[in-house]
Amino acid sequence: xxxxxxxxxxxxxxxxxxxxxxxxxxxxxxxxxxxxxxxxxxxxxxxxxxxxxxxxxxxxxxxxxxxxxxxxxxxxxxxxxxxxxxxxxxxxxxxxxxxxxxxxxxxxxxxxxxxxxxxxxxxxxxxxxxxxxxxxxxxxxxxxxxxxxxxxxxxxxxxxxxxxxxxxxxxxxxxxxxxxxxxxxxxxxxxxxxxxxxxxxxxxxxxxxxxxxxxxxxxxxxxxxxxxxxxxxxxxxxxxxxxxxxxxxxxxxxxxxxxxxxxxxxxxxxxxxxxxxxxxxxxxxxxxxxxxxxxxxxxxxxxxxxxxxxxxxxxxxxxxxxxxxxxxxxxxxxxxxxxxxxxxxxxxxxxxxxxxxxxxxxxxxxxxxxxxxxxxxxxxxxxxxxxxxxxxxxxxxxxxxxxxxxxxxxxxxxxxxxxxxxxxxxxxxxxxxxxxxxxxxxxxxxxxxxxxxxxxxxxxxxxxxxxxxxxxxxxxxxxxxxxxxxxxxxxxxxxxxxxxxxxxxxxxxxxxxxxxxxxxxxxxxxxxxxxxxxxxxxxxxxxxxxxxxxx
Length: 551
What we know:
The protein has helices at residues 2-32, 38-55, 74-82, 110-116, 126-130, 134-138, 155-167, 183-190, 212-228, 247-259, 263-283, 293-306, 309-328, 331-334, 343-346, 352-359, 371-389, 394-405, 411-420, 431-462, 478-550; strands spanning 62-68, 100-103, 123-125, 142-146, 170-175, 200-204, 236-238, 472-473, 476-477. The chain is an alpha/beta fold. The protein has two domains: 60-260, P-loop containing nucleotide triphosphate hydrolases (Rossmann fold, 3-Layer(aba) Sandwich); 293-550, no CATH class. The strands form two sheets. The chain has a seven-stranded mixed β-sheet with strand order 3-2-4-1-5-6-7, with helices on both faces. Strands 8-9 form a two-stranded antiparallel sheet. The two termini are 35 Å apart.
């Protein structure tokens, strides 16, 4: 029980560091999915999942795998380290068909062995067979694996070696003096594991078969090859498993590393770092960019032109001027304006609820975007995507470009709907125009009264009737004053109102332009900016995850 508690404490401590790296790699892989080569993302996700699984297992046990080629003496080294004849030894052909495990201290290792996929018939508990041996205490916590030969002609052996090399906490490569420079092991295993030098040992077995005067130079040659593989500093031990030469030193080195309780963490860190570096190379190292306000504004302008916003704004101004002039103009001539078509109604805009029931709120008669306007939209979308993708890896920049145009096929309908649903504020005439309209009718009635009065006076004079007294105002006959004043003031009021109408029309046009551009900006945000921002958010998540994994 005490051992399990201590293991749990070590696991928590390890998880606080390595676990954060694993979580960062998981987030980076998830964010890069669909934007980076699937093989790289799958590899990163698999490494993260494998590391997370290992962290949940025994922290008191260290998996040490012996790997090597046919005839390298890997099984002899395994037997020498365990002190038992557990693996068959062959000379001419591979005899290790499946991995064999020797465990020092099996308590708590059951789940780990199950995770490693080692069948019970290939498991041996060392302390149950010779628990009094000094080496049992020295190697307590070791799970020693004897892997199949990596150069076996059996495909299943290759797969087993590849699988367990990924799962082992520590790797001991057993080389033969005659084949230590074989490209197969260097290109397939050693070079790809260049970042794992801290969890690796190299054993040059059968050293007894090498003339004594050549042994030192051969060991140096192995070190040189390892340095070329990126594994400078990896210990190289000359060993003769047959005669027991160097076995104690090898056992001591394994025991020391296991006792430090750093091997598992170092292996997981190396795996995570290697996968993160591959993913980083594919995603790029640039900082997450931000959208340029100038580029977004240029995109909004291009969308506004494509939606014929200037045409609609001009129609708002003309319609306001027409409606207000009709209301404030001299009634005798103002009715002529009704013969002119309303610019907004010609565009099927601002028709009220009854008009929208006939034409549909989402369709207008606004001119469609011309080829030049469409080309400008395409140019601005591409410029925005290129500005964002600058500094990103080509695959991610391509993902940004694809996102920027993913919704553009529906652009025409969305722009038309935005224009149709915008309140242009031109349906009602200004409040002051209503008062002027009443005043104009008062003046025209005054003029008619004056004209009628003068007509009666003229008829009476023609008929030789007695002339009735005519009121005067400031020495002007009242009928004449009513006629001239009604007509003159009506015309003057109409001229003054034309100036006020022009100001009102321009003011409403500015407000309509602001509302339309806000609506078009919302379409730009939805159709282009939001998809790009989603890519930027994913890129930022990947960069943050990789920074955590590589810290």
